[in-house]
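Appendix B. Raw example, untouched.
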Amino acid sequence: MLSVRYDWIHNGLEDNLKLGGADLSGTRDFDKTTGRVGVTWNPSPTFGAYAAWGQGFLPPTTRSSQQPGAVRRPEPAARPGHLAGGEVGVRGELGDTLAYEASAFHLATMNDFGRYRIPGRRSRRSTRTPARAPAGASRRCSGGGPRGCSGSSSLHVERFTYDTVTTITGETYTGTFLPNSPANLTYLDAELRPTPHWVVGASLEYQSRSYVDPSNEVWTDPYTLVNLRAAYQWRAKAIHGEVVGSVRNLFNTSYIAFSEPDPDGNSYHPGPTREAFLGVRLWIGTL
């Protein structure tokens, strides 16, 4: 696989207010040529390997390119973000009951955008980060056992760290972790079909701590969620259906789902506690 892409983006803003007689209209053009290359190798029906490398391009929006004190005009100094990275992986099957996939990747970005606080102001702003180099790996496997048992699991390990990040307010950090990027994500799932009509299952979600901003001085705690589900399936001539019930966050765990630097002090956004769902599905036909 080989692809080449060219982007040209025009960003224009017209100031119809002209507060104090100042015209803050402005335009910026951004362009970039990027490419991607990859190869897949499948020597047998039960094993495959792949490798890919590519580039990316992200121009700033009008708001994210603004500097403190410039409310509208796109800043001439605003630069687009660039990234380049690669991934390698394998996937396959072991016998009739186990499937697996494992991969590793590395991604380097320049002139990226982040969040920061301006003391005394209630608006949230953006800034560029000169460089960061995320890297990680993930593994997934699934399989089936006797008597209608099946399960799957995934483990994602990432180390997203900044080489150097400089905020527009003057702070510089080196080697800190990317905000809202937990180092470990784990998912386990098991399912059982005790009768031809009933399917029951359970899953576990784990997320390690994640940091609020590039300083890494504050963070959200790790958490684990347990989920349950059950379904009853039936068939009557040309109609078949199922009733599905599930509970997410069975033990009513309190956790922070997302965080961000916020000058209003609302940096922590809690996730939902226990949730219950009930659904009915019907199919009409000869499926």
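End of appendix B.
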